[in-house]
Write a structure and sequence with these properties.
Length: about 150
């Protein structure tokens, strides 16, 4: 049995320490906002925050989490998260929406550490977040808009 704090709530999870966090979230805790995309940390759909830092939950083993706080798209909050949500809505970023929870978690991670990102900062932080609909220009514009909202 391992204790795991997700979105501020502590859960006791009985699972092998090698099981990916993604499967604990989705299958054991029924938290389906974090998406399965590729399973090899190449698409970003499964991005969550561990102690505020974006990570790919499909490749983060339960046994490696320790006492770190896990934050999912359902529990992310604060001024940066609200600015990102507002920008995403106002610029109509979402097309199919499947990748957007991971996109937003990466954007929140970027803006939390770099409140005035350049295009190069955005490209670097968002690299590996795949959008099959190709909304990359809207995503970049929304990150810039969220930055302006935060100013």
């Amino acid at each position: 049995m391992q204790k795991l704090t997700v979105d501020g709530v502590t859960h006791e999870v009985e699972a092998d320490p090698d099981v990916p966090l993604l499967w604990v979230l989705r299958d054991r805790l029924d938290m389906t906002g974090t998406k399965y995309g590729c399973g090899i940390a190449q698409c970003g759909a499964c991005t969550v925050h561990l102690d505020g830092q974006p990570v790919r939950s499909c490749q983060t083993r339960l046994g490696d989490i320790g006492t770190a706080q896990v934050t999912t798209i359902a529990g992310v909050s604060g001024p940066v998260a609200e600015a990102v949500r507002t920008a995403w809505r106002s610029l109509d970023v979402v097309q199919c929406g499947y990748c957007q929870s991971g996109q937003m978690m990466s954007a929140i991670g970027l803006l939390s550490g770099t409140p005035k990102p350049t295009d190069a900062d955005i490209d670097g932080a968002m690299d590996g977040n795949v959008c099959r609909c190709g909304t990359y220009q809207r995503i970049r514009a929304a990150i810039h808009e969220a930055s302006r909202i935060l100013a």
